[in-house]
Amino acid sequence: MTEVTYLLATRLGADAEVRFLGDLAAGNLIAEPVAPADWLRIAELVARRKSNKEIAQALQISVRTVSTHLSNIFLKLNVDSRGELADHIRGITTQ
After folding, report:
1. I need a surface site. Which of 20, 27, 75, 84 has the fewest CB within 10 A?
2. 75 sits in which H/E element
3. Alpha-carbon distances of 6 from 23, 44, 60, 94, rounded to whole Å
4. Domain spanning 32-95 has what CATH number?
5. Long-range contacts of 51-56 (CB under 8 A, 24+ apart)
């Protein structure tokens, strides 16, 4: 949750952060759990040039959840694009 708030504040600004926290407090958000192993699966599917929609269908989660997890993956791996993520994953799987 802290990562989501951080992303909102740094990428979308304080107004988005305040709206998010208000929605969270009001119970208007539904969290779709994804296991940490799914982050690797998401990254592997990106490396295979799958769209967010295709990834969502494969993992049976929403497209928005895929997007959120990709943002978190980008932060954790310090990459800025799908291409950089794909290169990173290919480097891991070929070692």
Report:
1. 27
2. helix 63-77
3. 16, 25, 26, 33
4. 1.10.10.10
5. none
